[in-house]
Amino acid sequence: MPVTNFSFQEKYQYQNGFDSYFESEAVPGALPVGHNSPQKPPLGLYAEKLSGTAFTAPRHENKQSWLYRILPACSHPPFMPLASTNISSPEKKLHYIPNQLRWDPFDHLPDTDFVSGLRLLAGAGDPTLKQGLGIYVFAAGVSMSPQSAFYSADGDLLIVAQEGVLDIRTELGWLLVRPMEICVIPRGVRYQVHLPSGPARGYALELYQGHFSLPELGPIGSNGLANARDFQAPVASFTEDHSEEGNGENAKKYTITAKFNNTLFQTTQPHTPFDVVAWHGTYYPYKYDLGRFNTIGSVSFDHPDPSIFTVLSAPSSVPGTAVADFVIFPPRWLVGEDTFRPPWYHRNTMSEFMGLICGAYDAKKGGSGGFVPGGASLHNVMSGHGPDMESYEGARNAELKPAKVGGGSCAFMFESCLMVGVTEWALDKCDKVQTEYSEHSWGGLKVHWKGGQEE
Ligand SMILES: [Fe+2]
């Protein structure tokens, strides 16, 4: 089924808001009025509920959507496990090590699509217990087949586009995700990733527990950081292809791949999974343009903790403690007086995975190979880190005028309260680990102590 049947206007009429109750119908009258599941839904559609939380979750956390579709999702033959894949392989075993890690940019994969190009880099916890997270890099050189769909039962996937454009068809509509944009595909939602401008690469975090929310703003007040109105959800968009199952050449032509406990399963069915004509609810995919982030910082001295740059936060059961925070370091003005302006040296009870979407990160100038767009770093629980020697000496001696840093750049961090393990692929097989990262970054730090005398 060609995907070019849809005009740009049909595909991308977004609904704006975060945690909003949305409704959308691609055909007028497809949404029932008042009833959620009338005896006969309008236009001969099936009503299907998609639950992102327990039915009984508190109202402010409850995420459910009603889908009105040509055939329900259950209409398929049994799933069969796929042979060893990048996700379901022994390499997913995690290694827990305290060393600082940094990776050169990960390879583009010209022959893979989004699903086969997902690589588990690190993780914590267990999707069967709905605890923890997985950290991925992805590379895709070809679009997914228009007769395929993927979903994960393991969690919500936050995708950070780094290079190339992702045109994502979901059951609930289309999302165009460009570099400097992110999207979240909720657990269970079926989708298909197209590459309208060639190869794509990026990062992803799968959240096994809970959902992302906007951080509380506290004394910041009612606006700032990521504003709710800038999040965009799709409008309903569907295809009619529901041929009867049989022995003809049209039989069983849509492939559905499921990620279930980090193992891939597949089935085929004779009807498109993208047949949702209308939907309403609070459980849906969404995207956000990082360029709209309202960055806030100090206007006197020192600088706030990096949590001031939090875009989205997935809270744990401990107040103020996140299973995963998504934090960015966008271009910003630094005006602090008598202040060491780069990030300070620190050791953190949280683990910090960082990636670079574009440009040069202001805390890392020297070192071997550096922190480069498409690469990554991991500073695990209590692994000391901070500016490299060159950045430290530069910042220590800089004349402190107001200065804009990070122009044309955006680094990000997945910060987690969990200790993350690293896969065999990340440590070895990918061949991107910078073995001298620590030595080159901090081995040459100078002693400025003069026996108690001022310099
Ligand atoms: Fe850090």
UniProtKB/TrEMBL annotation:
SUPFAM superfamilies: RmlC-like cupins
EC number: 1.13.11.5
InterPro entries attached to this UniProt entry: HgmA_C (IPR046451), HgmA_N (IPR046452), Homogentis_dOase (IPR005708), RmlC-like_jellyroll (IPR014710), RmlC_Cupin_sf (IPR011051)
Ranges for domain Homogentisate 1,2-dioxygenase C-terminal: 292-448
GO cellular component labels: cytoplasm
Keywords annotated in UniProt: Dioxygenase, Iron, Metal-binding, Oxidoreductase, Phenylalanine catabolism, Tyrosine catabolism
Binding site residues for Fe cation: E352, H385
Binding-site positions, homogentisate: H346, Y361, H385
GO molecular function (one): metal ion binding
Cell division found in the keyword field: no
Pathway noted in the entry: Amino-acid degradation; L-phenylalanine degradation; acetoacetate and fumarate from L-phenylalanine: step 4/6
Residues covered by the Homogentisate 1,2-dioxygenase N-terminal domain: 13-290
Co-factor(s): Fe cation
GO biological process: L-phenylalanine catabolic process; L-tyrosine catabolic process
Annotated catalytic residues: H303
A Pfam cross-reference name: HgmA_C
CDD domains found in the cross-reference section: cupin_HGO_N (cd07000)
Entry superkingdom: Eukaryota
Record bears the keyword Oxidoreductase: yes
Family designation: Belongs to the homogentisate dioxygenase family.
Full protein name: homogentisate 1,2-dioxygenase
